[in-house]
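@channel sequence for tomorrow's demo:
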Amino acid sequence: MIREVGSPFGPRCPAGGIGFSYCKHRHRQRCTPTMNSPSSSARSSRLSGFIGASMRAIAQSAGAHQPRINYHFESKEALGGEAVDHLDATMRDTLQLPVLVAAAAQDSTTPAVEFAAVSHRLVRFVALHPELNRIMMHATAYPGPRPEWLTGFYVRPCFDGLRPVWKVLVNAGIASPIHNRLILYVLNGSASLVFVNAHESSPLVGEASTSETGVKRHPDGLIAMLLPGLEAARSAVPKQRT
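structure tokens (generated this afternoon):
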């Protein structure tokens, strides 16, 4: 992913490496990651405590050598940029929001069904990768250039994409009357909080949400809350004759 001007994470490596987008070695000929590369190690660490952790702690958590990470990334912020980029790209590939946006231009039932599917995929993603929400929450906790840039680059595309879809669903009487400016946060918060705040939620809910069964049931509750008219809309669609 090529960053816009003003990125708080530092420059992209012109060598074009997939895994070392923020590699400090501008003239390095190969930056392609391997299973033992700093980028792979950073991802495997899950970076749940990234903001407060030292580079040494991150390296130990990832099972990587700190000098090698330091060789490729000039700062913890540069390493964080690589991690956020990777997780954000994985999330976008998983959710397939363009499919949902395109469905909203057809009718009201199709986007409702696709929204339900996105909810299932979102819960599955945050259950596997709660670190993306954790990093973003820490990085945007205080005002300044960094949260403004992060919001514009990572959050706004999803925010702008969901709004017209939600308008269609609310106007059709399928969705709950939640303002379209809030739906991203209602959906993301409801889907992710139990996983992102696992240290808080685990003693209270146990495996009710974090088990495989819980992960499958969790989005069903979200859909029932957010799309109370979904089943009625499905029933109103004439069945095609075979």
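heads up for whoever presents: The mean pLDDT is 77.
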